[in-house]
Amino acid sequence: MTELHEVQITEEKPLLLPPLQPIPGKKHSVETPYGLVAFTVHGTPKPKRPAILTYHDVGLNHQSCFETLFRFEDMQEIVKNFVVVHVDAPGMEEGAPLFPLGYQYPSLDQLADMIPCILQYLNFTSIIGIGVGAGAYILARYSLSHPDTVEGLVLINIDPNAKGWMDWAAHKLSGLTSSIPEMILAHLFSQEELSSCTELVQQYREALVGAPNLSNIQLYWSSYNTRRDLNFERGGDVTLKCPVMLVVGDQAPHEDAVVECNSKLDPTQTSFLKMADSGGQPQLTQPGKLTEAFKYFVQGMGYMASSCMTRLSRSRTASLSSAASGEGSQSRSRTLSQNSESGSPQQPPRPAPGSGAHTMEVSC
Protein backbone atom coordinates (compact mmCIF):
# COMPACT_ATOMS: atom_id res chain seq x y z
CA MET A 1 0.00 0.00 0.00
CA THR A 2 1.53 3.29 -1.08
CA GLU A 3 2.12 5.56 1.89
CA LEU A 4 -0.26 8.52 2.18
CA HIS A 5 1.35 11.93 2.29
CA GLU A 6 -0.07 15.15 3.68
CA VAL A 7 0.86 18.37 1.92
CA GLN A 8 0.44 21.46 4.06
CA ILE A 9 -0.17 24.68 2.14
CA THR A 10 -0.53 28.06 3.76
CA GLU A 11 -3.33 30.14 2.38
CA GLU A 12 -4.62 33.62 2.84
CA LYS A 13 -7.68 34.24 4.97
CA PRO A 14 -10.72 32.47 3.48
CA LEU A 15 -12.62 34.70 1.11
CA LEU A 16 -15.80 36.34 2.34
CA LEU A 17 -17.18 37.92 -0.77
CA PRO A 18 -20.11 40.31 -1.21
CA PRO A 19 -23.09 39.13 -3.25
CA LEU A 20 -22.02 38.51 -6.81
CA GLN A 21 -23.58 39.83 -9.97
CA PRO A 22 -24.30 37.00 -12.40
CA ILE A 23 -21.66 36.33 -15.04
CA PRO A 24 -23.28 36.76 -18.45
CA GLY A 25 -23.96 33.47 -20.19
CA LYS A 26 -26.38 31.96 -22.64
CA LYS A 27 -29.44 30.68 -20.80
CA HIS A 28 -31.26 27.65 -22.13
CA SER A 29 -33.98 25.28 -21.03
CA VAL A 30 -34.96 21.90 -22.38
CA GLU A 31 -37.96 19.66 -21.81
CA THR A 32 -37.17 16.26 -20.31
CA PRO A 33 -39.33 13.28 -19.32
CA TYR A 34 -39.34 14.70 -15.79
CA GLY A 35 -40.01 18.35 -16.55
CA LEU A 36 -38.19 21.44 -17.71
CA VAL A 37 -34.54 21.97 -16.74
CA ALA A 38 -32.64 25.25 -17.07
CA PHE A 39 -28.92 25.65 -17.66
CA THR A 40 -26.45 28.38 -18.56
CA VAL A 41 -23.58 27.98 -21.03
CA HIS A 42 -20.35 29.99 -20.82
CA GLY A 43 -17.84 29.95 -23.66
CA THR A 44 -17.84 27.98 -26.88
CA PRO A 45 -17.22 24.25 -27.34
CA LYS A 46 -13.58 23.28 -27.85
CA PRO A 47 -12.83 20.57 -30.43
CA LYS A 48 -12.18 17.16 -28.92
CA ARG A 49 -12.59 18.48 -25.38
CA PRO A 50 -15.31 17.70 -22.87
CA ALA A 51 -17.57 20.33 -21.40
CA ILE A 52 -17.28 21.17 -17.70
CA LEU A 53 -20.78 20.58 -16.28
CA THR A 54 -21.65 21.74 -12.76
CA TYR A 55 -24.52 20.76 -10.48
CA HIS A 56 -25.27 22.67 -7.28
CA ASP A 57 -26.34 21.63 -3.79
CA VAL A 58 -29.66 22.06 -1.99
CA GLY A 59 -30.44 25.64 -0.96
CA LEU A 60 -28.26 27.04 -3.73
CA ASN A 61 -28.39 27.61 -7.45
CA HIS A 62 -25.54 27.62 -9.94
CA GLN A 63 -24.73 31.25 -9.18
CA SER A 64 -24.63 31.05 -5.37
CA CYS A 65 -22.81 27.70 -5.50
CA PHE A 66 -20.20 28.22 -8.22
CA GLU A 67 -19.66 31.86 -9.18
CA THR A 68 -17.07 32.46 -6.44
CA LEU A 69 -15.02 29.57 -7.84
CA PHE A 70 -15.46 30.41 -11.52
CA ARG A 71 -14.73 34.10 -10.95
CA PHE A 72 -11.42 33.30 -9.27
CA GLU A 73 -8.48 34.72 -11.21
CA ASP A 74 -6.55 31.47 -11.60
CA MET A 75 -9.70 29.70 -12.79
CA GLN A 76 -9.83 31.84 -15.93
CA GLU A 77 -7.10 29.79 -17.58
CA ILE A 78 -9.27 26.69 -17.19
CA VAL A 79 -12.43 28.46 -18.34
CA LYS A 80 -10.67 29.52 -21.54
CA ASN A 81 -9.86 25.89 -22.31
CA PHE A 82 -13.33 24.41 -21.77
CA VAL A 83 -16.95 25.32 -22.36
CA VAL A 84 -18.81 25.44 -19.03
CA VAL A 85 -22.43 24.35 -18.50
CA HIS A 86 -24.07 25.28 -15.18
CA VAL A 87 -27.21 23.25 -14.52
CA ASP A 88 -29.94 24.48 -12.20
CA ALA A 89 -32.15 21.86 -10.58
CA PRO A 90 -35.83 22.40 -11.54
CA GLY A 91 -37.32 25.37 -9.72
CA MET A 92 -33.95 26.58 -8.42
CA GLU A 93 -33.03 29.01 -11.21
CA GLU A 94 -33.36 32.77 -10.72
CA GLY A 95 -36.98 33.85 -11.15
CA ALA A 96 -38.32 30.29 -11.14
CA PRO A 97 -42.09 30.06 -10.69
CA LEU A 98 -43.42 28.16 -7.69
CA PHE A 99 -44.53 24.60 -8.27
CA PRO A 100 -48.24 24.00 -7.62
CA LEU A 101 -49.37 22.34 -4.41
CA GLY A 102 -49.00 18.58 -4.68
CA TYR A 103 -46.36 18.74 -7.42
CA GLN A 104 -44.21 15.60 -7.49
CA TYR A 105 -40.61 16.80 -7.58
CA PRO A 106 -38.17 14.53 -9.45
CA SER A 107 -36.05 12.15 -7.43
CA LEU A 108 -32.27 12.56 -7.56
CA ASP A 109 -32.16 9.58 -9.94
CA GLN A 110 -34.61 11.35 -12.24
CA LEU A 111 -32.61 14.59 -12.03
CA ALA A 112 -29.58 12.57 -13.19
CA ASP A 113 -31.67 11.23 -16.08
CA MET A 114 -32.28 14.80 -17.26
CA ILE A 115 -28.59 15.33 -18.07
CA PRO A 116 -28.62 13.34 -21.36
CA CYS A 117 -31.33 15.69 -22.63
CA ILE A 118 -29.03 18.66 -21.93
CA LEU A 119 -26.06 17.07 -23.70
CA GLN A 120 -28.20 16.07 -26.66
CA TYR A 121 -29.61 19.60 -26.92
CA LEU A 122 -26.08 21.06 -26.91
CA ASN A 123 -24.64 18.26 -29.06
CA PHE A 124 -21.94 17.54 -26.44
CA THR A 125 -20.50 14.05 -26.25
CA SER A 126 -18.65 14.09 -22.93
CA ILE A 127 -18.27 16.07 -19.71
CA ILE A 128 -16.07 16.66 -16.70
CA GLY A 129 -18.54 17.01 -13.84
CA ILE A 130 -18.23 19.24 -10.77
CA GLY A 131 -20.94 18.64 -8.20
CA VAL A 132 -21.54 19.74 -4.62
CA GLY A 133 -23.65 17.80 -2.10
CA ALA A 134 -26.87 16.78 -3.81
CA GLY A 135 -25.31 17.82 -7.12
CA ALA A 136 -22.34 15.51 -6.48
CA TYR A 137 -24.74 12.62 -5.88
CA ILE A 138 -26.63 13.43 -9.10
CA LEU A 139 -23.45 13.48 -11.19
CA ALA A 140 -22.24 10.22 -9.62
CA ARG A 141 -25.59 8.59 -10.38
CA TYR A 142 -25.40 9.88 -13.96
CA SER A 143 -21.87 8.53 -14.33
CA LEU A 144 -22.98 5.07 -13.23
CA SER A 145 -25.60 4.91 -15.98
CA HIS A 146 -23.62 6.79 -18.68
CA PRO A 147 -19.95 6.02 -18.01
CA ASP A 148 -18.89 6.54 -21.64
CA THR A 149 -19.86 10.22 -21.51
CA VAL A 150 -18.01 11.14 -18.28
CA GLU A 151 -14.26 11.78 -18.49
CA GLY A 152 -13.81 12.90 -14.89
CA LEU A 153 -15.69 13.91 -11.75
CA VAL A 154 -14.99 16.38 -8.96
CA LEU A 155 -17.37 15.47 -6.14
CA ILE A 156 -17.54 17.90 -3.21
CA ASN A 157 -19.32 16.80 -0.01
CA ILE A 158 -20.78 13.68 -1.60
CA ASP A 159 -22.82 11.36 0.61
CA PRO A 160 -23.46 8.21 -1.46
CA ASN A 161 -25.52 6.52 1.25
CA ALA A 162 -29.26 6.46 1.71
CA LYS A 163 -30.55 7.63 5.08
CA GLY A 164 -30.80 4.84 7.64
CA TRP A 165 -33.64 4.56 10.14
CA MET A 166 -31.69 6.48 12.77
CA ASP A 167 -30.87 9.25 10.32
CA TRP A 168 -34.47 9.34 9.17
CA ALA A 169 -35.75 9.63 12.74
CA ALA A 170 -33.22 12.35 13.57
CA HIS A 171 -34.23 14.25 10.43
CA LYS A 172 -37.91 14.03 11.36
CA LEU A 173 -37.18 15.19 14.92
CA SER A 174 -35.09 18.12 13.73
CA GLY A 175 -37.93 19.08 11.41
CA LEU A 176 -40.13 19.57 14.49
CA THR A 177 -37.69 21.95 16.13
CA SER A 178 -35.91 23.64 13.21
CA SER A 179 -37.06 25.57 10.18
CA ILE A 180 -36.25 24.43 6.64
CA PRO A 181 -33.62 27.18 6.18
CA GLU A 182 -31.86 26.18 9.42
CA MET A 183 -31.84 22.49 8.47
CA ILE A 184 -30.38 23.31 5.06
CA LEU A 185 -27.75 25.58 6.63
CA ALA A 186 -26.71 22.68 8.88
CA HIS A 187 -26.31 20.63 5.70
CA LEU A 188 -24.23 23.32 3.97
CA PHE A 189 -21.92 24.57 6.70
CA SER A 190 -19.80 23.20 9.51
CA GLN A 191 -20.88 23.46 13.14
CA GLU A 192 -17.99 25.84 13.77
CA GLU A 193 -19.21 28.17 11.02
CA LEU A 194 -22.78 28.03 12.31
CA SER A 195 -21.73 28.61 15.92
CA SER A 196 -19.60 31.62 15.05
CA CYS A 197 -22.27 32.88 12.65
CA THR A 198 -19.70 33.86 10.05
CA GLU A 199 -20.43 36.55 7.49
CA LEU A 200 -20.82 33.86 4.85
CA VAL A 201 -23.34 31.88 6.92
CA GLN A 202 -25.33 35.02 7.66
CA GLN A 203 -25.36 35.95 3.99
CA TYR A 204 -26.72 32.56 2.97
CA ARG A 205 -29.17 32.42 5.88
CA GLU A 206 -30.72 35.70 4.75
CA ALA A 207 -30.87 34.45 1.18
CA LEU A 208 -32.66 31.25 2.24
CA VAL A 209 -35.11 32.87 4.64
CA GLY A 210 -36.03 35.46 2.02
CA ALA A 211 -36.02 33.09 -0.96
CA PRO A 212 -39.16 33.59 -3.06
CA ASN A 213 -38.91 29.93 -4.16
CA LEU A 214 -38.46 28.44 -0.68
CA SER A 215 -41.25 25.91 -1.28
CA ASN A 216 -39.36 24.71 -4.37
CA ILE A 217 -36.16 24.44 -2.34
CA GLN A 218 -38.00 22.33 0.22
CA LEU A 219 -38.98 19.88 -2.54
CA TYR A 220 -35.35 19.52 -3.67
CA TRP A 221 -34.35 19.05 -0.02
CA SER A 222 -36.95 16.30 0.37
CA SER A 223 -35.67 14.51 -2.74
CA TYR A 224 -32.13 14.64 -1.36
CA ASN A 225 -33.22 13.14 1.94
CA THR A 226 -35.00 10.25 0.20
CA ARG A 227 -32.10 9.37 -2.10
CA ARG A 228 -31.17 5.76 -2.77
CA ASP A 229 -27.84 4.22 -1.80
CA LEU A 230 -25.35 4.36 -4.66
CA ASN A 231 -24.03 0.95 -3.51
CA PHE A 232 -20.41 1.64 -4.39
CA GLU A 233 -18.20 -1.38 -3.84
CA ARG A 234 -14.43 -1.42 -4.27
CA GLY A 235 -13.60 -4.14 -6.77
CA GLY A 236 -17.29 -4.64 -7.54
CA ASP A 237 -19.40 -3.89 -10.59
CA VAL A 238 -20.93 -0.70 -9.14
CA THR A 239 -18.18 1.88 -9.21
CA LEU A 240 -17.12 5.08 -10.96
CA LYS A 241 -14.96 4.17 -13.94
CA CYS A 242 -13.49 7.63 -14.60
CA PRO A 243 -10.88 9.63 -12.66
CA VAL A 244 -12.50 11.07 -9.52
CA MET A 245 -11.43 13.79 -7.11
CA LEU A 246 -13.28 13.72 -3.80
CA VAL A 247 -13.23 17.02 -1.89
CA VAL A 248 -14.35 17.86 1.63
CA GLY A 249 -13.48 20.49 4.21
CA ASP A 250 -12.09 19.45 7.56
CA GLN A 251 -14.85 19.40 10.18
CA ALA A 252 -17.46 19.63 7.39
CA PRO A 253 -20.85 17.98 7.97
CA HIS A 254 -20.11 15.35 5.32
CA GLU A 255 -16.51 14.53 6.19
CA ASP A 256 -17.24 10.97 7.38
CA ALA A 257 -19.43 10.24 4.34
CA VAL A 258 -16.73 11.41 1.90
CA VAL A 259 -14.06 9.37 3.71
CA GLU A 260 -16.32 6.31 3.46
CA CYS A 261 -16.98 7.00 -0.22
CA ASN A 262 -13.23 7.17 -0.82
CA SER A 263 -12.81 3.74 0.77
CA LYS A 264 -15.31 2.24 -1.67
CA LEU A 265 -13.90 3.61 -4.94
CA ASP A 266 -11.05 2.38 -7.12
CA PRO A 267 -7.89 3.74 -5.44
CA THR A 268 -6.02 3.90 -8.77
CA GLN A 269 -8.64 6.31 -10.12
CA THR A 270 -9.48 8.33 -7.01
CA SER A 271 -7.84 11.30 -5.31
CA PHE A 272 -9.00 12.52 -1.91
CA LEU A 273 -8.58 16.18 -1.02
CA LYS A 274 -9.37 17.24 2.55
CA MET A 275 -9.09 20.99 2.80
CA ALA A 276 -8.16 22.78 6.00
CA ASP A 277 -9.84 26.07 6.96
CA SER A 278 -12.52 25.64 4.32
CA GLY A 279 -15.61 24.82 6.35
CA GLY A 280 -18.57 23.14 4.70
CA GLN A 281 -18.33 24.86 1.31
CA PRO A 282 -14.72 24.83 0.06
CA GLN A 283 -15.67 26.18 -3.36
CA LEU A 284 -16.88 29.33 -1.59
CA THR A 285 -14.26 29.79 1.12
CA GLN A 286 -11.11 28.43 -0.56
CA PRO A 287 -11.55 28.83 -4.33
CA GLY A 288 -7.80 29.25 -4.79
CA LYS A 289 -6.96 25.87 -3.31
CA LEU A 290 -9.75 24.16 -5.23
CA THR A 291 -8.68 25.80 -8.49
CA GLU A 292 -5.13 24.50 -8.00
CA ALA A 293 -6.38 21.00 -7.30
CA PHE A 294 -8.72 21.08 -10.30
CA LYS A 295 -5.98 22.26 -12.63
CA TYR A 296 -3.80 19.38 -11.50
CA PHE A 297 -6.76 17.03 -11.97
CA VAL A 298 -7.34 18.01 -15.61
CA GLN A 299 -3.59 17.89 -16.27
CA GLY A 300 -3.62 14.33 -15.02
CA MET A 301 -6.34 13.60 -17.58
CA GLY A 302 -4.08 14.89 -20.35
CA TYR A 303 -5.50 18.41 -20.78
CA MET A 304 -3.66 21.71 -20.29
CA ALA A 305 -0.39 19.87 -19.76
CA SER A 306 1.67 22.91 -20.78
CA SER A 307 -0.03 25.03 -18.11
CA CYS A 308 2.24 26.33 -15.37
CA MET A 309 2.19 24.03 -12.39
CA THR A 310 0.50 25.46 -9.32
CA ARG A 311 1.72 25.47 -5.73
CA LEU A 312 -0.43 22.45 -4.91
CA SER A 313 0.79 20.37 -7.87
CA ARG A 314 4.42 21.34 -7.19
CA SER A 315 4.11 20.36 -3.54
CA ARG A 316 2.25 17.17 -4.36
CA THR A 317 4.71 16.17 -7.09
CA ALA A 318 7.67 16.90 -4.80
CA SER A 319 6.12 14.74 -2.09
CA LEU A 320 5.52 11.92 -4.55
CA SER A 321 9.02 12.21 -6.00
CA SER A 322 10.48 12.00 -2.50
CA ALA A 323 8.40 8.92 -1.72
CA ALA A 324 9.46 7.29 -4.98
CA SER A 325 13.18 8.06 -4.67
CA GLY A 326 13.97 4.49 -3.66
CA GLU A 327 11.76 2.91 -6.29
CA GLY A 328 13.84 3.52 -9.39
CA SER A 329 13.03 5.92 -12.16
CA GLN A 330 9.30 5.20 -12.38
CA SER A 331 7.36 8.47 -12.38
CA ARG A 332 4.54 8.95 -9.92
CA SER A 333 3.22 12.12 -11.54
CA ARG A 334 -0.06 11.80 -13.37
CA THR A 335 0.58 15.01 -15.28
CA LEU A 336 1.22 14.06 -18.89
CA SER A 337 3.52 15.68 -21.38
CA GLN A 338 1.07 16.86 -24.00
CA ASN A 339 0.44 20.11 -25.80
CA SER A 340 -2.47 21.92 -24.17
CA GLU A 341 -4.12 22.43 -27.53
CA SER A 342 -3.96 18.77 -28.56
CA GLY A 343 -7.00 16.64 -29.12
CA SER A 344 -8.06 13.53 -27.24
CA PRO A 345 -6.27 13.00 -23.95
CA GLN A 346 -3.85 10.22 -23.34
CA GLN A 347 -4.67 8.03 -20.38
CA PRO A 348 -2.43 8.15 -17.31
CA PRO A 349 -0.22 5.11 -16.93
CA ARG A 350 -1.77 2.27 -14.95
CA PRO A 351 0.04 1.17 -11.82
CA ALA A 352 1.87 -2.12 -12.03
CA PRO A 353 0.03 -5.12 -10.63
CA GLY A 354 0.46 -5.28 -6.89
CA SER A 355 1.79 -1.74 -6.67
CA GLY A 356 -1.03 -0.71 -4.38
CA ALA A 357 -3.23 2.37 -4.27
CA HIS A 358 -2.25 5.78 -5.54
CA THR A 359 -4.98 7.48 -3.54
CA MET A 360 -3.55 10.41 -1.60
CA GLU A 361 -5.04 12.50 1.14
CA VAL A 362 -3.95 16.08 0.67
CA SER A 363 -4.64 18.31 3.63
CA CYS A 364 -4.13 21.85 2.47
From TrEMBL:
Biased composition regions of type Low complexity, renumbered to the chain: 319-334
Subcellular location per the Swiss-Prot or TrEMBL entry: Cytoplasm
Keyword Cytoplasm assigned: yes
GO biological process, one term: cell differentiation
UniProt keyword terms in alphabetical order: Cytoplasm, Developmental protein, Differentiation, Neurogenesis, Wnt signaling pathway
Protein name: Protein NDRG2
Gene: NDRG2
Highest taxon listed in the record's lineage: Eukaryota
Sections of the chain in a coiled coil: none
Described function: Contributes to the regulation of the Wnt signaling pathway. Down-regulates CTNNB1-mediated transcriptional activation of target genes. May be involved in neuron differentiation.
Annotated Polar residues bias: 335-345
Family indicated by similarity: Belongs to the NDRG family.
Gene Ontology CC terms, in alphabetical order: Golgi apparatus
Organism: Gopherus evgoodei (Goodes thornscrub tortoise)
InterPro entries: AB_hydrolase_fold, NDRG
Disordered as annotated region, ranges: 319-364
UniProt cross-references to Gene3D superfamilies, sorted A to Z: alpha/beta hydrolase (3.40.50.1820)
Primary residence: cytoplasm
Pfam families: Ndr
Signal peptide coordinates: none
